[in-house]
Protein: Response regulator transcription factor
Organism: Enterobacter nematophilus
Amino acid sequence: MRVIMFDRQSIFIHGAIHGLRKLIPGINITGACQADDLWAQISASPSAIVMIDGNLIQNEGSSFLDEIMHRFPSVRVMMVLAKKETRWVEQLMQRNVMAIIPRNANPERFAAVLDSVSRGMVCFPGEWVSQQSSAQALLSLSERQREVLKLLAAGESNKEIGRNLNISAATVKAHLEALFRRLEVKNRTQAAMYYTRATA
């Protein structure tokens, strides 16, 4: 497992590296406090898990995350947040952030989340996520849109969704475009993540 930490405090990086090496045998984990160093490390390991201190990039909004996703689409991003700020958490969830973890979590929780992310799973702290608002947004979709979304979240292609629901691939595409707008997501991955969170 290749992990790159981007954090404002080198002491936090050193402590996390020390703790995680004990808990995850064979982990390859390094840290960076400067953006230039981060870009260099991601360039060398473009499919790494990148654990980012939310305070470092919050002032830039989501543009820093967008740049990472654009330049390195295989990177899996995990955000470390010192406190819950609902609007910021929601911004992160609307991007392809795989996990959010509180900064004061114990090393075992960090290890568990890293393991989940390495397996392609999405991890958000339940106490920080408004399940109700996500579920309500799903209810605002038509029954057919919910059927399409459920199949998309199960990994079905447009052709497979169309075959299952006995509709054309073009109709599937139209349903997807409509539900993307309604849920305020940009792509299939974000829509699938949204569905998984709302139905957890």
Observations:
- The chain has two domains: 2-128, 131-198.
- The two ends are 27 Å apart (CA to CA).
- The CA atoms of residues 54 and 60 lie 10 Å apart.
- The first strand starts at residue 2 and ends at 6.
